[in-house]
Design a protein that fits this description.
This protein is mainly alpha-helical. Helix content is about 80%, strand content about 0%. It has 13 helices and 4 strands. A two-stranded antiparallel ribbon has the order 1-2. Helix 7 packs antiparallel against helix 8.
Length: about 325
């Protein structure tokens, strides 16, 4: 911990001043977001407000569920001694800080290091979450597509086969190579190598999680709930922009959004996601701009809900501390 006389970074992070800075900077980012994204302001002006409150409620639930998903992983896999109230404060603040590339994830890593979660394990936890999340999501899509995409085929097979095969491959390949790695480097002197030893810890984390039934049950349930809520958010959001889009088309946009964001080449897949959805809507005989607007609108809703939660939760913590 870096100290300057009697002041430490820990005291700064826990101070009321820091929480007030978070609150006012959230308000500034709201203003700056609207100022730099006039397309969003135009969308908000023309949207169907019968849906907006429902979308915001679903988005807040979505953020809470994802926060709980990470918390369950930290508690059940890493056995982190971290209270839920403290974790939510870290998560909500990091969500809003994510509006600046890399700030959110760095803030989260630094905060969790205070609870003995080193950076190696932090990376391992996020790899584990993304791996499980992707596998389960593709499995769910494969089942849904049987009912929602009955006439869609890929390589002369129903598209559900493609999603199911992808899900199985994504699940099996890391396990296969993990077991192969353990056998090859068993009691090997190479395990003393800096990079190999850390990769070995990541593999141990992956393999140990597979035997933790309590963790798996909670994780699968949370991913299922997140998937349903995310689907409701996107379909309702699409309806607010263009009520002529039918359910099946909304579902294709939903799948497209997930698949495009699977691999993040740049922070939050900025521009890439917008172009990707634009191509999808263009292929569906809507204009290219519709896909861009949908993604911009989705980013704004998540951003607004994240900032709102960060403000409310920091005020809540300040009130609690004042009462103490």
């Amino acid at each position: 911990m870096i100290k300057f006389k009697n002041i430490s970074l820990k005291n700064i992070y826990n101070s009321k001043t820091f929480k007030l800075i978070i609150i006012f900077s959230c308000l500034y980012f709201i203003y700056n977001y609207f100022h730099n994204n006039r397309e969003i302001a135009q969308i908000i002006k023309n949207i169907n407000y019968n849906y907006i409150s429902i979308i915001l409620i679903f988005t807040i639930i979505f953020i809470f569920l994802y926060a709980h998903l990470i918390y369950v992983t930290l508690k059940e896999i890493c056995f982190l001694n971290l209270k839920k109230k403290k974790w939510l404060l870290i998560y909500f603040n990091s969500q809003y800080l994510s509006s600046i590339p890399f700030f959110g994830i760095f803030y989260r890593a630094v905060q969790l290091k205070k609870f003995d979660l080193n950076y190696d394990k932090f990376v391992g936890v996020y790899f584990l979450i993304n791996w499980f999340f992707l596998f389960i999501t593709l499995f769910l899509i494969s089942i849904e597509s049987i009912f929602f995409l009955k006439t869609k085929y890929l390589f002369d097979s129903h598209i559900s086969i493609f999603f199911m095969t992808s899900s199985v491959i994504i699940f099996i390949v890391p396990i296969f190579f993990s077991i192969l790695f353990k056998k090859f480097f068993h009691n090997s002197q190479f395990l003393n190598n800096y990079f190999i030893s850390r990769f070995n810890k990541l593999i141990n984390l992956i393999l140990s999680s597979l035997y933790n039934k309590k963790f798996l049950k909670k994780f699968i349930l949370l991913v299922l709930l997140i998937h349903i809520i995310e689907f409701l958010i996107l379909t309702q959001l699409v309806t607010t922009i263009n009520e002529k889009i039918i359910f099946q088309e909304s579902y294709i946009i939903f799948i497209g959004n997930i698949l495009i964001d699977i691999v993040n080449f740049i922070p939050q897949n900025l521009i890439i996601s917008e172009i990707g959805l634009g191509i999808i809507t263009d292929k569906m005989n809507y204009n290219f701009e519709l896909g861009i607007l949908i993604k911009l609108y989705l980013r704004f809703i998540i951003f607004f809900a994240s900032v709102f939660l960060a403000i409310i939760y920091n005020i809540y913590i300040l009130i609690i501390e004042k009462e103490k």
